[in-house]
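Friendly challenge for the regulars: who can give me the structure tokens for this chain first? No prize, just bragging rights.
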Amino acid sequence: MNAVVAERGQVTIPKPLHEKLGIGPKTVLDFREEDGKLVAVKVPEGDPVTRVTGCLQLDAPTDELVAAMRDRR
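First reply, four minutes later:
Bragging rights claimed.
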């Protein structure tokens, strides 16, 4: 698929690609050069901390776990 770069450096992503890859309005893309090729990668939404918050299943409240670790010294 081809796209033409406009005078202001803008390119329209072909519809089949942006639909397949889930690229829509406000999607952030990271552009870089790899071996002479332009590569665009979707940037995950949200900050990294928020994405992993709550991913650990703990057996006790955090305060208790921290206290237990401190007692082990």
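The longest helix spans residues 62-71. The chain has a mean pLDDT of 89. Your move, everyone else.
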